[in-house]
Amino acid sequence: MPPQKIRAIISDIGRVIVGVDVSRAMQGLSNSIPLSPKEIWSAIEKDPRFVDLQDGRIGARDWHLHIVRRLGGNLTYDQFIQAWNAALLPETLQPDSLWAGLAKKYRLSLLSNTDPIHVAHMESTFTFFNYFPVRIYSCVVGSSKPNPVIYQEALRATKVKATEAVYIDDLEENVVAAKSLGMIGVHCADPATLRDRLSAAGVELA
């Protein structure tokens, strides 16, 4: 049988399209919280409520209150949001022209493990979102990659079969999960190689 025609490209956001530097956010938080940036990040990573934030079980304001109560400090909500969003670098890792060209031939969707704070910031800041009509976020779905539930939701919303979709992620475990469902996986640990990796996967580039 001939290979299935590619009809959609589904992409992760962090470290594929948007640069991420968690230390910038922790530095901002440490200006008020009486801990070092490393100590703050260690505490957040181990905090079960962090998963609740990412999976949409708590909102932005509850997360702010939780962090202030648990770690101390006197950050206002607006100061906290500003510091939290500093983890997202202002310059994108891919030019909008890449997505503009792909959007002429394929359905484009985003699939990201993220929280409502970062979603609001990214959607109001970056223009590449204009090319992605379907946006699947863990904080909306209530499930995170590599759980198959969130991939299946992305396929449903994009209206394609798994075998018709290319999935891009910087984390190999997330690519493996996509491939296990029948999707074409593109592991992109270096964003500079994305065009070549898409071409190798059978995607037609403008």
Question: How would you describe this protein?
Answer:
By secondary structure, the chain is α/β, with parallel strands linked by helices. Helices cover 46% and strands 15% of the residues. The protein contains 11 helices and 7 strands. The strands form 2 sheets. A 5-stranded parallel sheet has the order 5-4-1-6-7, sandwiched between helices. A two-stranded antiparallel sheet has the order 2-3. The mean pLDDT is 97.
Quick structural overview:
With 206 residues, the protein is of the alpha/beta class. The protein is built from eleven helices and seven strands.
Give the arrangement of secondary structure elements.
Layout: E1 8-11, E2 18-20, H1 22-30, H2 37-45, H3 48-54, H4 60-71, H5 77-85, E3 88-92, H6 96-103, E4 107-112, H7 116-125, E5 134-137, H8 138-141, H9 148-158, E6 165-169, H10 172-180, E7 184-187, H11 194-200
Parallel strand pairs: 1-4, 1-6, 4-5, 6-7
Antiparallel strand pairs: 2-3
Helix pairs in contact: 1-2, 1-5
Features of this protein?
206 residues; alpha/beta; five-stranded parallel β-sheet; two-stranded antiparallel sheet; 11 helices; elongated
* Assembly of the depicted chains: single chain
Give the CA-CA distance, first to last residue.
27 Å
Overall residue-averaged pLDDT value:
97
Query: In terms of per-residue confidence, which ranges show pLDDT below 50 for 5 or more consecutive residues?
Result: none
Biggest sheet character: 5 strands, parallel
Can you list the strand order of the major beta sheet? 5-4-1-6-7
Structural class: alpha/beta
Q: What is the chain-wise order of helices and strands?
A: EEHHHHHEHEHEHHEHEH
Shape: elongated
The total strand number stands at: 7
Bin the helical content. 40-55%
Instruction: Give the DSSP E fraction (strand runs of 2 or more residues).
Output: 15-25%
Radius of gyration: 18 Å
Number of helices: 11
